[in-house]
Amino acid sequence: RIQKIRTTTKHKQESEKADKIKRSMSGVAKKIINPMSLRAALNLQSSKIPEQLAKSSAAFLSSAPSGGKHTLPDLSYDYAALEPCVSAETMTIHHTKHHNTYVTNLNASLEKLDAAVSAGDVSSIIGLQGALKFNGGGHLNHTLFWENLAPAADSELKDGPLKDAIIAKFGSFDAMKADVSAMSVAVQGSGWGWLGYDSKSKQIVAATCANQDPLQATTGLVPLLGIDVWEHAYYVDYRNVRPDYVKAVWDVINWDVVEKRFIAASQ
Amino acid sequence: MTKFSLAVSAILVGSAAAWSTPMTMKADAGVDSRRNILQKGAAFAAGLAAPAAAGAYAVPDLLYDFDALEPYIDAPTMKIHHDKHHGTYVANINKATEGKDPVPILDLMADALEAGPVRNSGGGHYNHAFFWDEMTPADKAAKTKVSDQLEALINKSFGSMDEMKAQFEARSAPGALFGSGWVWICVNQAGDELKLVGTPNQDNPLMKGVLDEVMFPILGIDVWEHAYYLKYQNRRPEYVSNWWNVVDWDKVSSNCAYVIENHAGVPVRD
């Protein structure tokens, strides 16, 4: 009988110890503790982790949102809605093929990342960084892009904090357009033109990034407006004439979304 | 090399007097037609490079029609790729080299990374000039052969032609060469092995600083989206696997022989 009591107490103590350790860890650390090392840290003699602890650990281990997979977001407008600036054909291929491939490959890369993290395989973790940047950046950038586009009839920069900030930084709306356009056209090879928010200087800034490098992770700027200048974004409609595409895309910018982003970033 | 090719070309066009002035002649209205004749003559002269007329690089005419590489590369792509994309690189390299002594575009490659716009527009001009001439219509391509020298190098470096093609296709995949760039088979500095490399944008292995060592391309594919988008959209792997059908292995073999003998890059019609 005495032995039984001791065992129960021991389990209770181990459980409390586990909870204490869990609470004391930072959010990031929680995500990379795997069942094996958790057991080792707790010096648990049982090979079974208490059920509650196992459940929450599993949730921490997943790198995808809510333990699920990233998905291709729907557009809030029809594929033809941005014509004549961007054709339905371009929108369809761009969304269902290019963006979709980034989503698929991002999910695949994250699965591999989970496995590498669980195994403590640092070399593989590092080896995955390229694929994560390409595909994660591709997913991020295109999601932002679809949201900052709108049918021409709905594209209007109203008076407000965004307009004020643009004029404060660039002198005029047209000057901002000219700057961002010139930089976007000048991107060598594949990349993106951006209007971003610099929280240090509290200013709107024109910027570009190569390939699918995401603006915020690469430069620290908060993305407000993105213009895809990969050839796939304009080749069907404009062939090699990127300047014509960049000129036209200003007619289909969703300024409401850009302003919402600006307000959120500048708070 | 340059003086020799001048003399040969002069004989071919039968107007030695026109070429008796040194290379610092100024561009004038007649230079385009002289360049054209010179280029065609040079093409017959087994790939000797025509020296660039002063300040005036030009897009070399294709050795085949725009639709000659169908169905593997479509005619609209060939036309736009050649006339517009390559045309823009030529316009820009001419701007960048205005007032300078003319040199073959090959000569600008080594130091291109230090020469501002030469990297992009000079690289673009060389790469595309190289690209057009290593391709030929599929029926002709089928009759071309890999030389013994090239075959030996392929087997030594990759094991077999099939293995080389498989690795080349893997290196060209969208997840491997991300964004815009080129994939090349090169002869290494030592001249004893073939290397498979990718370069971004309009860089190439001849440019110091792009790779661990300068290397000499003998085969290369453009994987910028403009090279395949009209026909293949996002299906780059399909474009690359189809591309083998239009590769001129005689030309690739002669590229190989040239770079090994001269320890230098292949001259192009510029």
Automatic annotation (TrEMBL), chain A:
InterPro entries: Fe/Mn_Superoxide_Dismutase, Mn/Fe_SOD, Mn/Fe_SOD_BS, Mn/Fe_SOD_C, Mn/Fe_SOD_N, Mn/Fe_SOD_N_sf, SOD_C_sf
Gene Ontology CC entries for this record: mitochondrion
Catalytic activity: 2 superoxide + 2 H(+) = H2O2 + O2
Superkingdom of source: Eukaryota
Cofactor(s) in the UniProt record: Fe cation
Domain called Manganese/iron superoxide dismutase N-terminal: residue spans: 69-150
One MF annotation (Gene Ontology) recorded for this entry: manganese ion binding
Transmembrane feature ranges: none
PANTHER family in the cross-refs: SUPEROXIDE DISMUTASE 2 (PTHR11404), SUPEROXIDE DISMUTASE [MN], MITOCHONDRIAL (PTHR11404:SF6)
Keywords: Iron, Metal-binding, Oxidoreductase
Official protein name in the record: Superoxide dismutase [Fe]
EC number(s) reported in the record: 1.15.1.1
Annotated family: Belongs to the iron/manganese superoxide dismutase family.
Manganese/iron superoxide dismutase C-terminal domain: residues covered: 159-261
PROSITE patterns: SOD_MN (PS00088)
Automatic annotation (TrEMBL), chain B:
Superkingdom in the source lineage: Eukaryota
Keyword Ion transport appears in the UniProt entry: no
Positions of the Manganese/iron superoxide dismutase N-terminal domain: 57-135
Enzyme Commission code(s) on record: 1.15.1.1
Pfam family, one: Sod_Fe_N
Cofactor (UniProt): Fe cation
Signal peptide range: 1-18
Keywords associated with the record: Iron, Metal-binding, Oxidoreductase, Signal
Molecular function GO terms recorded: metal ion binding; superoxide dismutase activity
Domain Manganese/iron superoxide dismutase C-terminal: 148-254
Enzymatic class: oxidoreductase
InterPro entries linked to this entry: Mn/Fe_SOD, Mn/Fe_SOD_BS, Mn/Fe_SOD_C, Mn/Fe_SOD_N, Mn/Fe_SOD_N_sf, SOD_C_sf, TAT_signal
GO cellular component: cytoplasm
Family to which this protein belongs: Belongs to the iron/manganese superoxide dismutase family.
Protein name (database record): Superoxide dismutase [Fe]
Record organism: Ditylum brightwellii
Source taxonomy: Eukaryota, Sar, Stramenopiles, Ochrophyta, Bacillariophyta
